[in-house]
Amino acid sequence: MLAKRIIPCLDVKDGRVVKGVNFVDLRDAGDIVDNARYYNAQGADEVCFLDITATHEGRKTFATLVEKAACELFVPLTVGGGISSVDDFRTLLLAGADKVAVNSAAVVNPKLISDAAERFGSQCVVAAIDAKRVDTDADGKGIYHVFVHGGRKDTGIDAIEWASRLEALGAGEILLTTMDADGTRNGFDNDITGRVARNLNIPVIASGGAGKMEHFYDTFESGADAALAATLFHYREMEIRELKEYLKNRGVEVRI
Amino acid sequence: MHNGKKMTQNGFVTIIDYGMGNLHSVKNALDHLGIPCRVSDSPEDIKAADRLILPGVGAFPDAMAALKRNGLDKLIIKQCRNGKPLLGICLGMQLLFDESLEFGVTRGLGLIEGRVVPIDAHGLKIPHIGWNSLSINKKSPVIANLNDGAYVYFVHSFRADTASDNVIAYTHYGEDIPAVVGSCDLPVYGAQFHPEKSHDTGLSIISAFCAL
Asked: Which of A141, A166, A208, B117 supports an S-S bond with A127, CB 3.0-4.6 Å?
């Protein structure tokens, strides 16, 4: 049986690891290669680096750093941030990434997902969605929209339908960040995570809101295949090893 | 840190470059273990190597066509029949068998009896991607350092269909899937998963292979 995955995620800006709370308010916190080494040893099932650098120069630095970080990682590496072309995919895959995450660019140009899947295989195409609850339907279920530009712009697209569309286009995995939960530490939003996971035939990574070990248990119960967290691991507030022991004791299949 | 670092390896490994997949991560794993290696498509480097690694990501027919284009298929078969150890990884493992049903029937290298068929996952998601556990089927030096139940990282849609005698470890995903295979009479091995992405367990298999 497949193990549920724990994925530490690090935001990278101008070659340094940072972490925002609710997508603003960044704090500088460390070296990308040291972090890669640390999480590899800690038992991370995969490591994710998201580049939030705005400049072209900074992007080139990121590819160089991915190459250095990949040398320290013996688990899969996912990278993303500002990916807008098949060439961006190629650059990062050649630098040693195993998967590349696409966010806003897929909303503007959905063909990017199918082009990348055809060229490099679905297994390396991660479609990221920033979802925000905008309303509640008649049954009391949340209505979620896809947001872009770091969560500032509502596209008006239904997030659950968008996830299905991304699967049909050839995405190999969905990285679902719920923006209301992100940075709150009140738990993942398992309403939308569960609904997306049940709808799809590809893995769903829950992201945003982890604060306690039970939050991971809850999101796996709701159907998530993997859970991603940043601050919690980044500031050493939770050890991945301890989290996995906890999950194992509660009957969740994890790699220890 | 890893057992492989303490072992002594003779000579070097040639990682066969035939244009299929990311060789960087395989080389990185060997570099990390301190095992001398080179990535090459030259017949000289394949002949001179003490061991061969055949990686591969992509489709079976493309991979066989690429090997044939340079005559590497015949060279690899000859080297292995003469007793040179070879480790196939992922698609590289599948190429070791007689034939594959991926996009029609394509003949493989025929170093291990069996064929490559689609996974019948009984409703589970395809491809089989992620960390799955190994159950040991028979003893082999390549799994000398491996514990039953250890997790390794898979990414594939096809699997080997071969006699149990050729299977060193299985994984289970809807059905039993050969995860580590080995020829009964040649030092030819294959891993369906990516040992270079399977943390200490994967590295232990690479280092055990390089200590054969």
From this structure: A166
